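@here heads up, posting the sequence + SMILES for the 2-acetamido-2-deoxy-beta-D-glucopyranose run so it's all in one place. Ping me if the SMILES looks off, I pulled it from an old spreadsheet.
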Amino acid sequence: MGTDTRCWRLFGAAILFFLGFCDSDTAPNFTFLHNATRAPAISYYDYIIVGGGTAGCPLAATLSQNASVLLLERGGSPYGNPNITNLSAFGAALADLSPTSPSQRFISEDGVINARARVLGGGSCLNAGFYTRASTDYVSEAGWDGRLVNQSYEWVERLVAFRPRIQSWQSAVHDGLLEAGVVPYNGFTYDHIYGTKIGGTIFDVEGHRHTAADLLEYANSTRLTVLLHASVHKILFITRGNLRPLAHGVAFRDASGIKHRAYLKQGSKNEIIISAGAIGSPQILMLSGVGPAGHLKANNISVVLDQPMVGQGMSDNPMNAIFVPSPSPVEVSLIQVVGITRFGSYIEAAGGENFSPRDYGMFSPKIGQLSTLPPKQRTPEALAKAVEFMNSLDEAPFRGGFILEKVMGPVSTGHLELQTLNPNDNPSVTFNYFQDPLDLERCVQGLETIERLVESKAFSKFRFNELSIPTLLNMTVGAPINLLPKHANSSRSLEQFCKDTVMTIWHYHGGCQVGKVVDHQYKVLGVDALRVIDGSTFNYSPGTNPQATVMMLGRYMGETILNERLANDESK
Ligand SMILES: Cc1cc2nc3c(=O)[nH]c(=O)nc-3n(C[C@H](O)[C@H](O)[C@H](O)COP(=O)(O)OP(=O)(O)OC[C@H]3O[C@@H](n4cnc5c(N)ncnc54)[C@H](O)[C@@H]3O)c2cc1C
Ligand SMILES: *[C@@H]1O[C@H](CO)[C@@H](O)[C@H](O)[C@H]1NC(C)=O
Ligand SMILES: *[C@@H]1O[C@H](CO)[C@@H](O)[C@H](O)[C@H]1NC(C)=O
Ligand SMILES: *[C@@H]1O[C@H](CO)[C@@H](O)[C@H](O)[C@H]1NC(C)=O
Ligand SMILES: *[C@@H]1O[C@H](CO)[C@@H](O)[C@H](O)[C@H]1NC(C)=O
Ligand SMILES: *[C@@H]1O[C@H](CO)[C@@H](O)[C@H](O)[C@H]1NC(C)=O
Ligand SMILES: *[C@@H]1O[C@H](CO)[C@@H](O)[C@H](O)[C@H]1NC(C)=O
Ligand SMILES: *[C@@H]1O[C@H](CO)[C@@H](O)[C@H](O)[C@H]1NC(C)=O
Ligand SMILES: *[C@@H]1O[C@H](CO)[C@@H](O)[C@H](O)[C@H]1NC(C)=O
Ligand SMILES: *[C@@H]1O[C@H](CO)[C@@H](O)[C@H](O)[C@H]1NC(C)=O
Ligand SMILES: *[C@@H]1O[C@H](CO)[C@@H](O)[C@H](O)[C@H]1NC(C)=O
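bot reply: prediction finished. Complex structure tokens:
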């Protein structure tokens, strides 16, 4: 048995104490975590947060410092589940399709197989761990206070961000990026700057994952209640004649299907905050009667507010990757190095046993990635066939790694619609990958950069010289599968390669965007006492990868809301 050492750091007033107890697989001392089955039928709080994910946890921890807080999470606890806590197990949760899995698979109308979190800590429990801030331009365009932004990132980083240990394959990737012209070299930094850098990670040096749930360490445990297996079905509104609808409570169900309600205490500053993620937040708004009136009526939902923009502006950054088989051994690594180009695509890499029959990996059909077939052909049967094919091969062809590019933004957008009235079911989502030609152009330029990287001197140790790039792109047999689907007319078109091999890097966002569904204070337009704070509010994905900024936003808005509360108390 390996020991899952998890070192809990406790906070003194201003000093960090490192406690020596590194217990395996047990939850930290969170006295406020409860199964929703234990919740009373009715309860009252200053703040009620829907969704204990990447934004919801830091938000709850912060608000609990000065107010009573209820955090409702539909999933369970991440603690003690090696599929979540262990770097080497990456993908195991994404491959688990059971109803109790921390990951819920969904397939967009585009046909790309995707996943959403269903666990305390949200996407930070499933993700590849890369940790990197948004650019200063992004921060100023968002209208955020740069000083509070930096303090909030630091607050997050004190508990969950680490410097990765770079080994030889990732080193070859960064040297290759420099040779390919993605310069300068910026060393290890969380900052988003042009060139090649080593970013942070939420995995510590022992490969243990630290998640947004760990930020609950900051909470005042006497003022916070976290209910697990608590599925919110509806935000409850008071309608008041000509006044704006007022959010005043939520209805949720526990694991046994029993209904509970939680209401805001009396007090004009108390609020409900939705942090259910880019799929869950627009979904719960619609289920509560805030959304496009026609669509709500068609689903027999009584309209609280006709808001046509709810569910609009859904985007998923397209990801395309090239597998490069290697004559030398390649260490297991998730994302560590990133190339930030000036043309708007980010180059990242994951090496090691990414396709191995034993493992899951970022590009395995076991988790729904199947770039050898165009999106709409990635049926369950096709996935099963690909898994079977891989199981029939020995380990040798799996030696190597993937170089990927992610298109920034993206510019293309789509929309989300309800399919059922059950909040546990997936809504239908359309992302319209590459609908805008700029996204396609960025993909092509990204792939051209990857070609230069692969052909660089620095990378030569990790590629077979006899495999030219066109051969590599066309490789299907014996080795695992690059990646070019067969089109009579398109074997050399990188545009077609982009469209046919598109996958997700799971950075989907939108649905409750700032300026369209919420204002710059994240307050839902047209109603009172309701905000949305999470990745659904983004117009574009921040940084090269979003999680740092999602966690930062939870802290940032928690502080902002408490400051407003305090200012209001003083004016009384
Ligand atoms: C496989 C994968 C790999 C990724 N890799 C990276 C990476 O390396 N680096 C990076 O920066 N980002 C990465 N990301 C993206 C990043 O993790 C997400 O952008 C981020 O976690 C989104 O945070 P969120 O708070 O918006 O939503 P979430 O974290 O998804 O939180 C939403 C929460 O709300 C809960 N919820 C939803 N509906 C309800 C309801 N009705 N009632 C109660 N609870 C509800 C959900 O269970 C969930 O816990 C990855 C994501 C995935 C899935
Ligand atoms: C855990 O909680 C107990 C009782 O509340 C407390 O005495 C103890 O110090 C806590 N330990 C840690 C590591 O927080
Ligand atoms: C929560 O309670 C339900 C119903 O009693 C039970 O099925 C479930 O296993 C419990 N979950 C946890 C994590 O204790
Ligand atoms: C972590 O994963 C590795 C590889 O799958 C495995 O060898 C190890 O036992 C795992 N550790 C735990 C604590 O599950
Ligand atoms: C871990 O993942 C595997 C593979 O998806 C699954 O079979 C198993 O049930 C999961 N274990 C837990 C504890 O979730
Ligand atoms: C925030 O930090 C970044 C470096 O991470 C720095 O460039 C920027 O100037 C800082 N902003 C403020 C307002 O201090
Ligand atoms: C935590 O909250 C309680 C009130 O519930 C308060 O008395 C206590 O001072 C708070 N602790 C801290 C460290 O702020
Ligand atoms: C809406 O209600 C009508 C009448 O009760 C019913 O016929 C219809 O199937 C319902 N539609 C949906 C989407 O539930
Ligand atoms: C691609 O591979 C097929 C066989 O799988 C072969 O017929 C074709 O010539 C190859 N094309 C290129 C450009 O290498
Ligand atoms: C290839 O042919 C198909 C069908 O004729 C067409 O839709 C597609 O646009 C073509 N692709 C390229 C790159 O020319
Ligand atoms: C939080 O409460 C403390 C006293 O418990 C007070 O000193 C502090 O100013 C409050 N902060 C905010 C932002 O409300």
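MO: The two ends are 60 Å apart (CA to CA).
MO: One more: Residues 547-571 form the longest helix (25 residues).
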